[in-house]
Amino acid sequence: MNQERRSSLKVLIHSPYPIRTDYPSGVSSFIQEIIPFLEAQGCDVRTLGPTNKNRQSDRADYHLGNPVSIPVIETKIDAAVTFNKGRARQILEAVKPHIIISHEPGVPNSSHTLFSAIPKDENEKRIVPVVGQFHAGYPPHGIDALARAYTIAAKILRRPKFSYGIPTGLTMGYVNTIEKTLSGRIAVSNGTAQFWNEMFPGEYRVIYNGINVGFFNPDGPKLEKWEDGKKTIFFAGRHDGRKGLEYLLQAYASLRRVGFDALKLKLAGKGDMTERLKEIVKKEDIPDVEFLGVLSKEDLARAYRSADVVVAPSIGGEGFNRTIAEARSCGTLVVCTDIRGQNEAIGDDLYGFMARPFDSDSLATQINRVLSLPEEAAREIRVKSGQDVRERFAWKIIAGQHVAYYDEVLSKHGELPKWKIRRGPRIPLAGDVFVSDKLK
Prior knowledge:
37% of the residues lie in helices and 16% in strands. With 440 residues, it is an alpha/beta fold. The longest helix is centred in the last third of the chain and has 19 residues, at 395-413.
């Protein structure tokens, strides 16, 4: 697709999770950050996500479905549930997208409802190409036999012929709709591509998560109150089981016990494990641990710059972990666990400092190694690390790769969709969707 055709490219970005600013979410942050860089390349972008009770933190242009808390391995997700295909069709006709980017399309069930609402041409082909973007990585303990069996069964079993869908289960009808609708697939890392290819075989284009290197840079302000003579270990992210925070607490406590008194631990973010982590700190009397809550983007950048080391102790489930790249972009040393996805974000400069997952002793050893580096060696790593992020993960580069892939998908799909102008009254604005100003 040439630049003239792309200049009016209408992109609808769909998320099964709330697009919000008040809770740590990799998918939500990704969507919010890529938009201005897509727009800079001539795309007209609209976003679609579930409703959000906190209107001040809501960043979705349109809403489809209500978020329902769904427990998955070592975490919980708030995913949109809706069977209102008429509402989805109304939103599509309002936006008239040329291409749809659906994040985590396998998450039940708003993607299925949205895809089912896309009109078909005379050849039963959906008129709008859909790109699925996959973020999740391998679970902490791998793909168990039950999950594999469930996926196989979903492709074999027929669903009951209800008027529309069923509320539970990835039946063959559900899976087929998702797989047959996708014209392209993006994975945020090779690890993510490998994971999803085992579950749903296909061709995945690996495009890494992007980083706002202009914002996350080493030259901005720091948190002066952290400059108290003690070295700072910093974590940022959601507090759930897959993030490995208990191992970080154990590693930090062991360093303090063997005489590293000039240390402090700062934990940003929140989640289902926050209170449990606080209880561990209190019960085991671990000193100099502070829970910071969810930081603003500005304070997060200050925290990265102020930390002596950022630690990402995840035990699995990471597609990429942008925290690692953001910290490196700020010129901060990083210790992470050696799991798929994270080991693609860490870079050659810090690759040798990765710790074994599920191993607090290994984590403590690597934290100590990094904090004990001679200043000249540490400075050299910081400089090389930041340069690597700017060359590989800068949003301008990543967004360009996305747009190039959109062009590729659109070229294979054929001409841009022709949306018919519906005559007559609008569909009533009711049900499980409330509508933003852009639909009024």
